[in-house]
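Journal club prep — side note

Before the paper discussion, L.F. wants everyone to see what a predicted structure for a comparable chain looks like in token form. Sequence:
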Amino acid sequence: MNHFRTFPMPILPSLTLDLFPNPAFERSESYGAARSAVLGAPALAQAEAELTAWPGYQPTPLRGLPALAAAIGVASVHYKDEGSRFGLSSFKALGGAYAVARLLCREIGRALRPADLLSDAMRAECAALTVSCATDGNHGRSVAWGARMFGCACVIYVHATVSEGRQRAIEQYGATVVRTAGNYDDAVRQADADARTHGRFVISDTSYPGYMDVPRDVMQGYQLMVHEAVQQLGRWPTHVFVQAGVGGLAAAVCAYFWERDPARRPVFVVVEPDRADCLLRSARQGRLTAVTGELDTLMAGLACGEVSLLAWQILERGANAFCTVDDAAAVAGMRLLAHPLGDDPTIVAGESAVAGLAAAIAARQDDEASRALGLDADSCLLFFGSEAATDPALYAELVGETAQAVANRSAA
């Protein structure tokens, strides 16, 4: 099933949705011990205890969009708005900084909770260590924030197309930023090579052979967001559409529901930019398949060409379907949330936050896609709005007004 053509609607332009139902999915398959070792309830309980003890922690809001639900013919739409997470405007605050804390505890060699690292004595011990990573923007910002909070040094690698605004957002936390040639995956390799040379510790959100522990911590931190959403919603959704870069966020969400009740888990759809669709290609080929080149998409946080191995352990058989949307759909989604239907809340959503929402609307516009995903008038949809305006200049260009102006309308 490929390239569904949607019909014009007042809330989104006509667009192409490339949908691939996953032939490896089997609802009766158990989660299993191997996947529990990647993402499991005990590790989430530990992450919850530690992250909720950090200064400034509070659950992010789950926003209902009843007018949008009525417009697309479903029972409900809920959007987990991560724009206020620890003041970093992104869900990534739960992952990178948490992984920094976990690594520092391991390297110091003490049985400490990461919250204990906030003491002056422990910060002094951490000062001799340097953490590093490659980023499209938000993960690096989280790592830099965590490094400043815990007192260690930080070097962040950004690739050629990362905006100056995102670079400055990282530098404000005291990190040294190194700009590299090539795409995100090239920056990952450069960060890893330089870390080996200079004795730094890589805090990557993507896993690869020989490098699994830190990305596992990153993904486990993300699951706190899912846990909050389920508690706020008070029931399980029937459908979850989640955007993906290397797949860590999508895997964290998928694993949460799969582990707890395989038979009752929501229909789970992975959504990528059409120019950075490594997960969709991997599903189609039945093996990990990289996307090379510039990965030129507005959805900068999703511009990744190689799948995280840990994420693939979950998504290869846990996702019901994979799909892509184009940049126009992302922009339309941003504008829709900035100028919502009816009395729906106004939301500032960054360009990497809305792919899941756009894909669901596009799928609902097409009868065959709706049938393939079981979307109907009884469907309860959940989305994770992974970022706010993390690049304010780009947001204003795409939406036609500043994020602050949109936020002011929301507060009015």
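L.F.'s comment for the group: Residues 1-10 have pLDDT under 50 and may be disordered. Keep this in mind when we get to the figures.
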